[in-house]
Amino acid sequence: MAVPFLDLKAQFATIRDDVLKAVTRVFDDQAFVLGKYVEAFEHACAEYLGVKHAIGVSNGSDALLLALMAAGVKPGDEVIVPAFTFFATAGAVARLNAVPVFCDVHADTFNIDLKSAATKVSGKTRAIIPVDLYGQCADMEGVMDLARAHNLAVIEDAAQAFGATRNGKQAGTFAHYGCYSFYPTKNLGGAGDGGMVTSNDDELADRIRLLRTHGERPRYYNKQVGICGRLDALQAVVLHVKLEHLDAWNRRRAEVAARYNAAFAGHARIKTPPVSKGNTHIYHQYTIRIPDRDRVQGELSAKGVGCGVYYPVPLHLQECFKQQGGKPGDLPVSEQLCAEALSLPVFDQMTNAQIDEASKAVIEALG
Ligand SMILES: *Cc1c(COP(=O)(O)O)cnc(C)c1O
User: Fold this and answer.
1) What domains can you pick out in the chain, each with its CATH number?
2) Is ligand 1 within 6 A of the CB of residue 59?
3) Closest among 67, 69, 93, 89 to 79, alpha carbons compared
4) What pTM value is reported for the model?
5) Does residue 260 have a cis bond before it (omega within 30 degrees)?
6) For residue 61, which atom of ligand 1 is closest to its CA?
7) Which residues of the chain have pLDDT under 50?
8) Which residue has the CA at smallest separation from atom 7 of ligand 1?
9) Could you report the per-residue pLDDT of 47-69, keeping only the tens digit for each?
10) Do 346 and 286 form a contact (C-beta atoms < 8 A)?
11) Is 61 in the pocket of ligand 1 (CB under 6 A)?
Protein backbone atom coordinates (compact mmCIF):
# COMPACT_ATOMS: atom_id res chain seq x y z
CA MET A 1 0.00 0.00 0.00
CA ALA A 2 1.32 3.41 -0.95
CA VAL A 3 1.19 6.03 1.79
CA PRO A 4 1.13 9.70 0.77
CA PHE A 5 3.35 12.10 2.69
CA LEU A 6 0.40 14.46 3.06
CA ASP A 7 -3.21 14.10 1.90
CA LEU A 8 -4.91 17.49 1.75
CA LYS A 9 -7.70 16.13 -0.47
CA ALA A 10 -8.89 13.88 2.36
CA GLN A 11 -9.04 16.89 4.68
CA PHE A 12 -10.83 19.07 2.11
CA ALA A 13 -13.53 16.43 1.66
CA THR A 14 -14.53 16.95 5.31
CA ILE A 15 -15.01 20.75 4.98
CA ARG A 16 -15.84 21.16 1.30
CA ASP A 17 -19.32 22.67 1.67
CA ASP A 18 -18.30 25.17 4.37
CA VAL A 19 -15.25 26.32 2.42
CA LEU A 20 -17.14 26.76 -0.84
CA LYS A 21 -19.94 28.68 0.91
CA ALA A 22 -17.42 31.01 2.55
CA VAL A 23 -15.52 31.57 -0.68
CA THR A 24 -18.76 32.27 -2.57
CA ARG A 25 -19.64 34.96 -0.02
CA VAL A 26 -16.35 36.75 -0.73
CA PHE A 27 -16.95 36.55 -4.49
CA ASP A 28 -20.48 37.89 -4.07
CA ASP A 29 -19.08 40.82 -2.08
CA GLN A 30 -16.12 41.38 -4.46
CA ALA A 31 -14.09 42.55 -1.44
CA PHE A 32 -10.80 40.71 -1.76
CA VAL A 33 -8.08 42.41 0.29
CA LEU A 34 -8.13 43.01 4.08
CA GLY A 35 -11.62 44.21 5.11
CA LYS A 36 -14.23 42.57 7.31
CA TYR A 37 -13.40 38.94 6.51
CA VAL A 38 -9.75 39.42 7.37
CA GLU A 39 -10.69 41.31 10.55
CA ALA A 40 -13.04 38.54 11.64
CA PHE A 41 -10.29 35.96 11.12
CA GLU A 42 -7.77 38.14 12.98
CA HIS A 43 -10.14 38.38 15.95
CA ALA A 44 -10.73 34.64 15.93
CA CYS A 45 -6.97 34.00 15.92
CA ALA A 46 -6.31 36.51 18.71
CA GLU A 47 -8.94 34.80 20.82
CA TYR A 48 -7.69 31.29 20.01
CA LEU A 49 -4.09 32.23 20.74
CA GLY A 50 -4.87 34.31 23.82
CA VAL A 51 -2.96 37.28 22.43
CA LYS A 52 -3.90 40.94 22.17
CA HIS A 53 -3.20 41.50 18.48
CA ALA A 54 -3.22 39.16 15.48
CA ILE A 55 -2.44 40.79 12.15
CA GLY A 56 -3.04 38.96 8.89
CA VAL A 57 -0.21 39.30 6.39
CA SER A 58 0.76 38.00 2.96
CA ASN A 59 2.83 34.96 4.03
CA GLY A 60 5.08 33.67 6.79
CA SER A 61 8.24 35.04 5.22
CA ASP A 62 6.75 38.54 5.10
CA ALA A 63 5.55 38.08 8.69
CA LEU A 64 9.22 37.69 9.70
CA LEU A 65 10.32 40.56 7.46
CA LEU A 66 7.65 42.89 8.89
CA ALA A 67 8.53 41.93 12.47
CA LEU A 68 12.23 42.63 11.83
CA MET A 69 11.40 45.97 10.19
CA ALA A 70 9.10 46.88 13.07
CA ALA A 71 11.79 45.91 15.58
CA GLY A 72 14.05 48.46 13.88
CA VAL A 73 16.63 46.01 12.50
CA LYS A 74 18.96 48.01 10.26
CA PRO A 75 21.66 47.17 7.68
CA GLY A 76 24.69 45.70 9.44
CA ASP A 77 22.77 44.68 12.57
CA GLU A 78 23.18 41.07 13.65
CA VAL A 79 20.26 38.73 14.29
CA ILE A 80 20.79 35.32 15.89
CA VAL A 81 19.08 32.49 14.01
CA PRO A 82 19.33 28.71 14.44
CA ALA A 83 21.21 27.04 11.58
CA PHE A 84 18.68 24.19 11.47
CA THR A 85 15.41 25.73 10.22
CA PHE A 86 13.60 26.62 7.04
CA PHE A 87 15.47 29.17 4.95
CA ALA A 88 12.91 31.96 5.41
CA THR A 89 13.95 32.50 9.04
CA ALA A 90 17.36 33.74 7.89
CA GLY A 91 16.28 35.08 4.49
CA ALA A 92 14.13 37.75 6.14
CA VAL A 93 17.19 39.02 8.04
CA ALA A 94 19.38 39.10 4.95
CA ARG A 95 16.75 40.98 2.94
CA LEU A 96 17.18 43.93 5.32
CA ASN A 97 20.94 43.82 4.73
CA ALA A 98 21.28 42.70 8.31
CA VAL A 99 23.43 39.66 9.14
CA PRO A 100 21.97 36.32 10.23
CA VAL A 101 24.40 34.95 12.81
CA PHE A 102 23.85 31.22 13.07
CA CYS A 103 23.79 29.22 16.28
CA ASP A 104 23.37 25.51 16.96
CA VAL A 105 20.34 23.52 18.10
CA HIS A 106 19.65 20.59 20.45
CA ALA A 107 19.91 17.15 18.85
CA ASP A 108 16.80 15.78 20.57
CA THR A 109 14.29 18.64 20.18
CA PHE A 110 15.80 20.21 17.02
CA ASN A 111 15.26 23.61 18.71
CA ILE A 112 17.63 26.46 19.56
CA ASP A 113 20.52 25.73 21.93
CA LEU A 114 20.70 28.75 24.22
CA LYS A 115 24.30 28.03 25.27
CA SER A 116 25.32 28.25 21.62
CA ALA A 117 23.12 31.32 21.08
CA ALA A 118 24.72 33.12 24.04
CA THR A 119 28.18 32.73 22.50
CA LYS A 120 26.96 34.53 19.34
CA VAL A 121 25.83 37.74 21.07
CA SER A 122 27.99 40.73 20.09
CA GLY A 123 27.77 44.50 20.35
CA LYS A 124 25.91 44.48 17.02
CA THR A 125 23.22 41.94 17.98
CA ARG A 126 19.75 43.49 17.78
CA ALA A 127 17.40 40.52 17.74
CA ILE A 128 17.02 36.76 18.01
CA ILE A 129 14.61 34.48 16.14
CA PRO A 130 13.89 31.19 17.96
CA VAL A 131 11.94 28.69 15.84
CA ASP A 132 9.28 26.28 17.16
CA LEU A 133 10.51 23.65 14.76
CA TYR A 134 8.29 20.79 13.55
CA GLY A 135 5.49 21.94 15.88
CA GLN A 136 6.85 22.24 19.39
CA CYS A 137 7.98 25.31 21.25
CA ALA A 138 11.61 26.16 21.83
CA ASP A 139 12.68 27.04 25.38
CA MET A 140 10.96 30.40 25.07
CA GLU A 141 11.39 31.37 28.73
CA GLY A 142 15.12 30.81 28.32
CA VAL A 143 15.17 32.82 25.09
CA MET A 144 13.37 35.73 26.78
CA ASP A 145 15.88 35.66 29.67
CA LEU A 146 18.83 35.77 27.26
CA ALA A 147 17.17 38.58 25.29
CA ARG A 148 16.45 40.64 28.41
CA ALA A 149 20.07 40.35 29.51
CA HIS A 150 21.27 41.79 26.18
CA ASN A 151 18.32 44.04 25.30
CA LEU A 152 17.40 42.06 22.15
CA ALA A 153 14.10 42.02 20.28
CA VAL A 154 12.64 38.51 20.10
CA ILE A 155 10.68 37.28 17.10
CA GLU A 156 9.23 33.80 17.64
CA ASP A 157 9.00 31.89 14.35
CA ALA A 158 5.91 29.79 15.04
CA ALA A 159 5.28 29.07 11.34
CA GLN A 160 5.22 25.33 12.06
CA ALA A 161 3.48 25.45 15.43
CA PHE A 162 0.02 27.08 15.29
CA GLY A 163 -1.86 25.58 18.24
CA ALA A 164 1.13 24.09 20.06
CA THR A 165 1.47 25.14 23.70
CA ARG A 166 4.19 25.52 26.29
CA ASN A 167 3.35 25.78 29.99
CA GLY A 168 -0.22 26.60 28.99
CA LYS A 169 0.68 29.40 26.56
CA GLN A 170 0.26 29.26 22.80
CA ALA A 171 3.25 29.07 20.46
CA GLY A 172 3.96 32.49 19.00
CA THR A 173 2.78 34.46 22.06
CA PHE A 174 5.95 34.51 24.18
CA ALA A 175 8.00 37.18 22.45
CA HIS A 176 7.70 40.75 21.15
CA TYR A 177 6.37 39.28 17.94
CA GLY A 178 5.09 35.86 16.89
CA CYS A 179 5.11 34.89 13.21
CA TYR A 180 2.96 32.23 11.54
CA SER A 181 2.62 30.81 8.03
CA PHE A 182 -0.58 29.57 6.41
CA TYR A 183 1.21 27.94 3.47
CA PRO A 184 -1.08 25.09 2.34
CA THR A 185 1.07 22.31 3.85
CA LYS A 186 1.25 23.93 7.30
CA ASN A 187 -1.09 22.46 9.92
CA LEU A 188 -3.34 25.51 9.50
CA GLY A 189 -2.98 25.95 5.76
CA GLY A 190 -4.83 28.22 3.35
CA ALA A 191 -5.66 27.94 -0.34
CA GLY A 192 -2.44 29.72 -1.26
CA ASP A 193 -0.11 31.99 0.67
CA GLY A 194 -0.93 33.69 3.96
CA GLY A 195 0.64 34.55 7.28
CA MET A 196 0.16 36.33 10.59
CA VAL A 197 2.04 38.41 13.12
CA THR A 198 0.96 38.48 16.76
CA SER A 199 1.92 40.81 19.59
CA ASN A 200 0.71 41.65 23.08
CA ASP A 201 2.01 45.22 22.79
CA ASP A 202 -0.30 47.88 21.29
CA GLU A 203 2.50 50.00 19.89
CA LEU A 204 4.47 47.08 18.42
CA ALA A 205 1.29 45.76 16.77
CA ASP A 206 0.49 49.17 15.32
CA ARG A 207 3.90 49.25 13.62
CA ILE A 208 3.09 45.96 11.84
CA ARG A 209 -0.30 47.26 10.64
CA LEU A 210 1.38 50.39 9.30
CA LEU A 211 4.22 48.56 7.55
CA ARG A 212 1.96 45.91 5.97
CA THR A 213 0.31 48.62 3.82
CA HIS A 214 3.37 50.54 2.60
CA GLY A 215 3.53 52.60 5.78
CA GLU A 216 0.63 54.74 4.56
CA ARG A 217 -1.61 56.52 7.05
CA PRO A 218 -3.94 57.93 5.99
CA ARG A 219 -4.22 56.48 2.49
CA TYR A 220 -1.61 57.85 0.06
CA TYR A 221 0.29 59.63 2.85
CA ASN A 222 3.34 57.50 3.63
CA LYS A 223 4.88 57.83 7.06
CA GLN A 224 7.46 55.09 6.47
CA VAL A 225 8.55 52.75 3.69
CA GLY A 226 6.65 49.54 4.28
CA ILE A 227 5.75 46.62 2.01
CA CYS A 228 2.69 45.19 0.30
CA GLY A 229 2.08 42.61 3.00
CA ARG A 230 -1.70 42.21 3.14
CA LEU A 231 -3.78 39.07 3.67
CA ASP A 232 -6.49 38.23 1.11
CA ALA A 233 -10.11 37.83 2.18
CA LEU A 234 -10.32 34.52 0.29
CA GLN A 235 -7.50 33.14 2.42
CA ALA A 236 -9.05 34.54 5.61
CA VAL A 237 -12.42 32.83 5.09
CA VAL A 238 -10.85 29.47 4.19
CA LEU A 239 -8.56 29.67 7.23
CA HIS A 240 -11.46 30.74 9.45
CA VAL A 241 -13.38 27.57 8.49
CA LYS A 242 -10.29 25.47 9.17
CA LEU A 243 -9.52 27.12 12.53
CA GLU A 244 -12.74 25.59 13.91
CA HIS A 245 -11.30 22.12 13.24
CA LEU A 246 -7.71 22.78 14.19
CA ASP A 247 -7.76 21.35 17.71
CA ALA A 248 -9.33 18.09 16.53
CA TRP A 249 -6.86 17.86 13.67
CA ASN A 250 -3.90 18.59 15.93
CA ARG A 251 -5.13 15.92 18.36
CA ARG A 252 -5.19 13.37 15.55
CA ARG A 253 -1.67 14.35 14.50
CA ALA A 254 -0.53 13.66 18.09
CA GLU A 255 -2.24 10.25 17.92
CA VAL A 256 -0.38 9.49 14.71
CA ALA A 257 2.90 10.40 16.42
CA ALA A 258 2.08 8.22 19.45
CA ARG A 259 1.40 5.25 17.16
CA TYR A 260 4.73 5.76 15.38
CA ASN A 261 6.50 6.05 18.75
CA ALA A 262 4.98 2.76 19.88
CA ALA A 263 5.97 1.03 16.63
CA PHE A 264 9.57 2.26 16.90
CA ALA A 265 9.97 1.56 20.63
CA GLY A 266 12.81 -0.91 21.16
CA HIS A 267 14.46 -0.16 17.81
CA ALA A 268 17.77 1.24 19.01
CA ARG A 269 18.71 2.73 15.63
CA ILE A 270 15.57 4.89 15.41
CA LYS A 271 15.50 8.02 17.57
CA THR A 272 11.94 9.24 17.95
CA PRO A 273 11.15 12.92 18.67
CA PRO A 274 10.73 13.68 22.40
CA VAL A 275 8.26 16.26 23.70
CA SER A 276 9.86 18.71 26.13
CA LYS A 277 8.42 19.09 29.62
CA GLY A 278 5.49 21.53 29.61
CA ASN A 279 5.00 21.31 25.82
CA THR A 280 2.21 20.03 23.63
CA HIS A 281 3.44 19.12 20.14
CA ILE A 282 1.28 19.56 17.04
CA TYR A 283 3.61 17.54 14.77
CA HIS A 284 3.78 19.76 11.73
CA GLN A 285 6.41 17.10 11.04
CA TYR A 286 7.03 13.76 12.72
CA THR A 287 10.80 13.54 12.36
CA ILE A 288 13.02 10.66 13.38
CA ARG A 289 16.81 10.43 13.39
CA ILE A 290 18.36 7.38 11.77
CA PRO A 291 21.68 6.20 10.38
CA ASP A 292 21.86 5.67 6.61
CA ARG A 293 19.14 8.25 6.11
CA ASP A 294 19.58 8.71 2.36
CA ARG A 295 19.38 4.97 1.69
CA VAL A 296 16.28 4.59 3.89
CA GLN A 297 14.66 7.54 2.17
CA GLY A 298 15.31 5.91 -1.21
CA GLU A 299 13.81 2.59 -0.09
CA LEU A 300 10.68 4.26 1.31
CA SER A 301 10.21 6.25 -1.87
CA ALA A 302 10.61 3.07 -3.97
CA LYS A 303 7.79 1.48 -1.94
CA GLY A 304 5.55 4.51 -2.40
CA VAL A 305 5.82 5.59 1.23
CA GLY A 306 6.14 9.36 1.28
CA CYS A 307 8.90 10.93 3.35
CA GLY A 308 10.88 14.16 3.36
CA VAL A 309 14.18 15.63 4.47
CA TYR A 310 13.76 18.85 6.43
CA TYR A 311 16.46 20.10 6.03
CA PRO A 312 19.36 18.76 3.97
CA VAL A 313 21.71 21.77 4.36
CA PRO A 314 22.34 23.81 7.53
CA LEU A 315 21.99 27.52 6.88
CA HIS A 316 25.60 28.43 7.72
CA LEU A 317 26.68 26.21 4.79
CA GLN A 318 24.15 27.53 2.24
CA GLU A 319 25.77 28.94 -0.88
CA CYS A 320 24.04 32.32 -0.50
CA PHE A 321 25.68 32.85 2.91
CA LYS A 322 29.14 31.78 1.72
CA GLN A 323 30.58 35.27 2.16
CA GLN A 324 29.96 34.92 5.92
CA GLY A 325 32.63 32.22 6.02
CA GLY A 326 30.68 29.35 7.64
CA LYS A 327 32.64 26.07 7.57
CA PRO A 328 31.75 22.41 8.11
CA GLY A 329 32.28 21.66 11.80
CA ASP A 330 31.16 25.12 12.98
CA LEU A 331 27.72 23.95 14.16
CA PRO A 332 28.09 20.19 14.54
CA VAL A 333 24.61 19.34 15.81
CA SER A 334 22.85 21.16 12.96
CA GLU A 335 25.15 19.43 10.49
CA GLN A 336 24.48 16.02 12.04
CA LEU A 337 20.71 16.57 11.95
CA CYS A 338 20.88 17.47 8.28
CA ALA A 339 22.38 14.02 7.70
CA GLU A 340 20.05 12.06 10.03
CA ALA A 341 16.59 13.67 10.01
CA LEU A 342 13.77 11.96 8.15
CA SER A 343 10.17 13.18 8.31
CA LEU A 344 7.43 10.58 7.95
CA PRO A 345 3.84 11.03 6.76
CA VAL A 346 1.62 12.80 9.28
CA PHE A 347 -1.78 14.33 8.54
CA ASP A 348 -5.08 14.58 10.35
CA GLN A 349 -6.97 12.16 8.10
CA MET A 350 -4.23 9.50 8.27
CA THR A 351 -5.51 5.99 9.04
CA ASN A 352 -3.92 3.55 11.46
CA ALA A 353 -3.28 1.20 8.52
CA GLN A 354 -1.29 3.95 6.79
CA ILE A 355 0.75 4.62 9.94
CA ASP A 356 1.49 0.91 10.35
CA GLU A 357 2.53 0.61 6.71
CA ALA A 358 4.91 3.57 6.96
CA SER A 359 6.48 2.42 10.23
CA LYS A 360 6.91 -1.14 8.91
CA ALA A 361 8.68 0.25 5.83
CA VAL A 362 11.13 2.19 8.03
CA ILE A 363 11.87 -0.82 10.25
CA GLU A 364 12.39 -3.09 7.22
CA ALA A 365 14.69 -0.57 5.51
CA LEU A 366 16.88 -0.38 8.61
CA GLY A 367 17.06 -4.19 8.76
C1 LIG B 1 6.94 27.88 6.26
C2 LIG B 1 7.92 28.57 7.11
C3 LIG B 1 8.21 29.94 6.97
C4 LIG B 1 7.74 30.76 5.81
O5 LIG B 1 6.41 30.77 5.55
P6 LIG B 1 5.84 31.09 4.08
O7 LIG B 1 4.39 31.30 4.36
O8 LIG B 1 6.12 29.91 3.22
O9 LIG B 1 6.51 32.32 3.60
C10 LIG B 1 9.05 30.53 7.88
N11 LIG B 1 9.63 29.83 8.87
C12 LIG B 1 9.41 28.51 9.03
C13 LIG B 1 10.09 27.78 10.15
C14 LIG B 1 8.56 27.84 8.15
O15 LIG B 1 8.37 26.52 8.31
Assistant:
1) 8-243 (3.40.640.10), 246-366 (3.90.1150.10)
2) yes
3) 93
4) 0.98
5) no
6) 9
7) none
8) 60
9) 999 999 999 999 999 999 999 99
10) yes
11) yes
